Amino acid sequence: MRQLERLFRRRLPADRLLGNDFARQICQVSRDIRRQVGVLADRRGDVQHVMVGDARGIELPDWGRLRAGRGRLRGLRCIHTHLTDEGLSRDDLTDLAVLRLDAIVSVGVREDGLPGLAHTATLAPANDDGRTTEIHAPIHPAELDLDFGVFIRDLENELSATTGAQQVGGAERAMLISVTAGRDRETLDIHVEELTELARAAGVQVVDVITQNRPRLDPKTSVGSGKLSDLVIRCFQQDIDLVIFDQDLTPTQARNLAERMELRVVDRTQLILDIFAQRATTRDGKLQVELAQLRYRMPRLAQRADLSLSRLAGGIGGRGPGETKLENDRRRVRDRITRLERDLKQLAKQREGRRRRRGRRGVPVLSIVGYTNAGKSTLLRALTQADVFIEDKMFATLDPVSRRLRFPREREVIITDTVGFIRDLPGDLVAAFHATLEELVDADLLLHVVDASAPDFERRVQAVHDVLGRIGLGEKPELLVFNQIDKLPDGAAPALERRHDCVAISSVKKQGLSNLLSRAERMLWDGATASRGASPFGDESVEPRRSAGGGS
Ligand SMILES: Nc1nc2c(ncn2[C@@H]2O[C@H](COP(=O)(O)OP(=O)(O)OP(=O)(O)O)[C@@H](O)[C@H]2O)c(=O)[nH]1
Ligand SMILES: [Mg+2]
């Protein structure tokens, strides 16, 4: 104990990584007690911590949430002994990365208690070969003549040069991670591309994309633990502080990852929720998003009430459901959920009233549905000249918009545009958006808009059908509308029309719209009239019916 305590009073030479006297001293203690011994020393050379491990390992103190500055090292170096002269271990390198140490050094202890070789690693600035650490050649402490003061100043300059240059417009810098259990390459690419689009829609700058194929996802951290320390360093090198997982993370995985990476970690569901939170403008929309966010957070709160919420639950750029509501208190969250549910029920009742009045007037309803970014709002605008928000971003539309549309022969319908769908739409979101989606219940015909230029359009059609099925609308009559045909090569559109029994249009170029209207008209009036021999538009008078060859 006395010898260990004496280590605190030691001062390392400030301009040297490690003096030989010091190496002798920790090696001596280490051999006496047959355990690893280590210190953390600051830039002045003062020993800040003394650590004692066992024969094979040593644990560094837990800094909690204290973080080094952006692109900065922590100003501490770790010097510790290894009872056998095997060099730095994987754990050593992980500590170097996660704790952003100036350097980590292991000194082998010889049988006679004298120091053997010193193995040193430092973090590498971003480089083309994807190297994350610099492993220096092993050298005896007595021969170590590196000027550490100069070395660390240069390293920090290099680090801040690479990170500083990458700073663009203040957008958050993110790494995307897709861990797949036996998915094929093509599916993986599509998933990554979609996640990139989602990130872009959330206003995040994607700096790095990592994919990993594992036979099985790691239940604790999703990615394997070896990969994890690599990821931490890559994030550090590229000044990334947000990690987005394509796979939904369990509360346990999210917590483990946030703790081990010392970074903010979100999954796809959270990302989508965040986009929704940014886009919600109406009272309905805002309440629904908040409800979905809280439901998502609830099990994560329940797990660990004491963990700082900012990292686990915070949205992109800290846009959660408001600071005051981010109470780290399950009961309050539950109360809030109950209130939101009540308010939303109230609003749903009002909407129901509006719908019934509309229904009595006998105006049929055409609802535009489809995958997000397919061009639904563009179609609404092309048909009605409505001034709606259109953007080449996912989930541009959140709140439903309805317009009157005059058909030829003086017939009138109401046409509505609403939130787009996506594959694996999170359950909480479907539940929370029930109020909005139930507008679709009244639809007499669904115009299912498909981006015909998407390579995976068939999967998207399937994803939309899945969501429709989940909200109980799988049997609604549907007209498939293949949009964006202006992007296709000549002759492709007629082929699509034949193969999928759809109408092919371009909302932007306003091609095929009259064809679309006459098909819709036939399905609304003639088709239903033929089957029922009566006016189709009394309340509840339309028999659910899928269009022939709905393409599903
Ligand atoms: N080339 C081409 N682009 C189109 C067409 N229709 C829509 N777009 C573009 O596709 C992008 C998405 O259009 P939106 O109308 O916002 O799509 P949306 O389906 O409403 O999307 P969300 O509301 O985000 O789900 C925009 O950049 C449109 O300009 C089309 O027929 N041709
Ligand atoms: Mg839209």
List keywords for this structure.
single chain; 552 residues; alpha/beta; Rossmann fold; 4 domains; six-stranded mixed beta sheet; disordered C terminus
Q: What features would you describe in this structure?
A:
The protein is α/β, with parallel strands linked by helices and 552 residues long. The protein is 40% helix and 18% strand. It is built from 17 helices and 16 strands. It has helices spanning 2-8, 20-33, 90-98, 148-166, 185-201, 225-237, 251-261, 268-279, 283-303, 309-313, 330-360, 376-384, 427-432, 434-437, 457-470, 492-500, 513-532; strands spanning 37-42, 47-52, 76-82, 103-109, 115-123, 133-135, 172-180, 204-213, 242-245, 264-267, 365-370, 401-406, 412-417, 445-451, 478-483, 503-504. A six-stranded mixed beta sheet has the order 2-1-3-4-5-6, sandwiched between helices. Strands 12-13-11-14-15-16 form a six-stranded mixed beta sheet, sandwiched between helices. A four-stranded parallel beta sheet has the order 8-7-9-10, with helices on both faces. The protein binds guanosine-5'-triphosphate and magnesium ion.
Global outline:
elongated
CATH level-two architecture of the largest domain: 3-Layer(aba) Sandwich
What structural class results from the helix and strand content?
A: alpha/beta
Cα-atom radius of gyration = 30 Å
State the strand order across the main sheet: 2-1-3-4-5-6
What is the total tally of β strands? 16
Instruction: Give the helix tally.
Output: 17
Q: Helix share of residues?
A: 40-55%
Unreliable residue runs: 303-315, 317-327, 528-552
Q: Mean pLDDT across all residues, rounded? A: 82
Biggest sheet overview: 6 strands, mixed
State the CATH superfamily name of the largest domain: P-loop containing nucleotide triphosphate hydrolases
Which ligands appear in the coordinates? guanosine-5'-triphosphate, magnesium ion
